[in-house]
Each structure stands twice: as C-alpha cells, then as structure tokens.
Amino acid sequence: MNRDNEAKSTAQSLDFAIAKAFGGSPLNLACPDNGGPSISWAGAGVANAPEYDPLKAYRTLFPNGEKGGSVVGTDKASLRKGVNDVVRIQMQELLADPKLSQSDKERLQLHMSNIRDLENNLLNNFVMPDGDRMAIQGFNSAMARDNASRGITPKMHADIIAIAAATGQKRAMTLQLGPCILDTEYNIEGKPVGGSWHESVTHANNKPKLAIFDRLNQKNFAYLLTALEQYKFADNGKTLLDFGVASFIISLGWGGQHWRFDLPHVTAGSANGRLKTGYYHNLMAGKSEAEREAKFIPTNRFLSTIGRAVGAAGTENFNARIPSKDAATRLDQKGLINEMLA
Q1: Nearest-CA neighbor of 149 among 197, 179, 189, 182?
Q2: Which helix (H) or strand (E) holds 294?
Q3: By C-alpha distance, which of 202, 210, 212, 244 is closest to 227?
Q4: For residue 200, what are the contacts with CB-CB under 8 A and spacing of at least 6?
Q5: Is residue 138 pLDDT above 90, yes or no?
Q6: Which residues, including other chains, have CB under 8 Å from residue 57's CB and lie 6 or more apart?
Q7: How many CB atoms lie within 10 A of CB 109?
Q8: Which residues contact 148 (CB under 8 A, 6 or more apart)?
Q9: Alpha-carbon span 233 to 122, nearest angstrom
C-alpha cells in the first residue's frame, strides 16, 4: 500500500473476489465525507468507485422496481445462473460416473432441483418495505456527497444492500462509512458539528469524541443487520443474515501513528452454520502491548476465513502470497483463523 489518502491496493479486495467466484460484480456504496481511496479493488491499483447516491444505486439495480429488477450489462444473466450452473460441468461428470447408483443420481438431481427452487424464491419473491423504498425514492441526489446527509444515507444504503442480496442481484457488497482521512466531526445522530476532526480529535487522542464516532458507525452496522434479518424464509425460519456474513472492520487506531493492533473485527451471520456466532476471541490474549503492537492484525487470515465460509474459490491465503517486510515479526497472514469456524 501507498500512504495515507493516496493509498492504493496491490491486489483485488475480498468483495470483488467473492462476487467474481459467483459470476457477478460487487455492489460498492459509500457515505460522506467524500474522497480518499475506495475499499473495493478489482486488482492492483484498479479501484471500484463507490456510489454515494442511494437513489442512483436503487434505480441501477431495480429500474422497474424489485419485482422486475435487473442489473446492467451481463450481470443479470451471470448472476441468475445460480449454483446449478456454476457446478454444471462437475455435476455432469458425476452423474455420468458408472459407480454412482441410479437412486444416488436421482437424489442428487432432486437436491439440485431444490436449490434451483430456493434461488428462484430468492430472486423473485422479496421486496423492500414500502417505507424504506419511499425514503430512497424521495432522496435528493444533490445531497449524496454532502456531509449533511451522513445521518441518513448509511441506512438507505443498508436497505439497498439487503434487498440486493435478498433478490440475488448481488452476492458481495461493501458500505464505506467514511474516507481514509475524516475531517468532519459528527454527533451520535450523524449530523456534522465541526471540522478539523482528524487533527483535533484523532491525533489528539480525544477519546470521548472518538467514542461518539465509533458508536455512530456501530449503529449503522446494527441497522444493516436488522435490514438483513427482515428477509425470512418461510420453510425454515432462517433469515438472510443466517445464510450470509456481514463484517464490521476497523483498520486503524487513533493517534498520530494510527496503530495497527487491538482493533476489533466483528462478524454477524454464520454463512449457514459454517462460522461460530456469539463469542469473542482475542488472538493475542495475555500478551504485552509491545508484543501486540509488533504482531499487527492477521487481516489476510480473517478474509480467507470469510472466503472459505461462503465457499468462494480462489480466496485461500487471500492476498498473503507475498510476505510483508516484517513478516517474521507479525502474526502469520497465511491460513485461516480456525477459532472462527464452526
């Protein structure tokens, strides 16, 4: 990575890798403040520009409303291939295996048919609550990058993410809650109340004001989880969140040096039982601050574990092929965080 507000990724981000693995593209949304690097990358130095405008994002995904929704270009066709088409070649080879009995073949075909029925339900039957849709359709696009909209656009983006997932339009999405260098102070409701936040709050270690912004972001994440949970499956009582994973990641600490340790990474949802839920794990429990500071956060292992849980091929040892210059000191970035797995 380069430094500060000109940072560029040296590889693709996990959202892009997951979307690609399932034959689509990611949905990337962002909230004010405006500016700085994206958190989604198609490859080294190739950013996926986020959309700040909830109304534009909604109309792009659903030009005819959710029932007749479609994505632009070839995404609709590729996304609706579904699980059956992704593994079609392997299925044909397996069904042609003479070692497989006729009853086994029939059970396998029934299983794939059931998956197709589930996908059709996902793609056709869910619609956004009327109140959420009306709020988005009434949004003034001219305010999309205005700091004054910080209190409302995260919720609209969360509603769009939830319906995009529920209808199968998108398989991987990101919501960027702020730029690399934030310079606006917000209150707990997301209203701008001052400037010079980066220097006067972050670099000054103003913990009370830092806590307010942390709680604001956590409220936004909690709203996203609620939005995902409102889409329920009648046959098993599970919600959309049960079948997926939502992650809340803090990459930098405060202070002039912005430390890279003791940073919480939160996941919600179990990827249909593949991840543990309801627990806290400290990878550096009992270690001194100096030891924790030297080790950093094993972000690559965290991302690899998410990729493994959702079944995205090509996410093993995610972006950990080239060791960092101080790899001998840091926690190993290759492999998984096994404590996360169910």
Answers
A1: 189
A2: helix 289-295
A3: 244
A4: 185, 206
A5: yes
A6: 27, 29, 51, 157, 160
A7: 12
A8: 191, 192
A9: 9
How far is residue 321's CA from residue 318's CA, in Å, rounded to a whole number?
Answer: 8
Q: How far is Cα 178 from Cα 220, in angstroms, rounded to an integer? A: 12
Q: Which of 10-24, 66-80, 94-108, 298-312 has the lowest mean pLDDT?
A: 66-80
Mean pLDDT for the stretch of residues 190-203: 88
The backbone torsions φ and ψ at residue 232, rounded to the nearest 5 degrees and listed phi first, read -115, 150
Look at residue 222 and give its three-state secondary structure.
Answer: helix
Selection from 190, 245, 254 nearest residue 18 by Cα = 245
| Residues linked to residue 173 through DSSP beta bridges, in sequence order | 27
Query: Average pLDDT over the chain, rounded to whole?
Result: 84
For residue 215, give the H/E element and its range: helix 207-229
| pLDDT of 79 above 60 | no
Alpha carbons 16 and 26: distance in angstroms, whole number:
6
Cα dihedral 308, 36, 164, 77 sign: negative
Cα torsion angle, 16, 155, 182, 56, sign: positive
pLDDT at 74 over 80: no
Given pLDDT bands bounded at 50, 70 and 90, which one contains residue 19? Answer: very high
State the DSSP string of 88-115. Answer: HHHHHHHHT-TTS-HHHHHHHHHHHHHH
Q: Which residue type does 73 have? A: G
What is the DSSP track for 157-204?
A: HHHHHHHHHHTTS-S-EEEE-S-SS--EEE-TTS-EEEE-HIIIIITT
**Residue 307 and residue 55: Cα distance in Å, rounded?**
30
> What does the chain come to in residues?
342
Beta strands in the chain (DSSP E): 27-30, 41-43, 46-47, 173-176, 184-186, 192-195, 246-249, 265-268
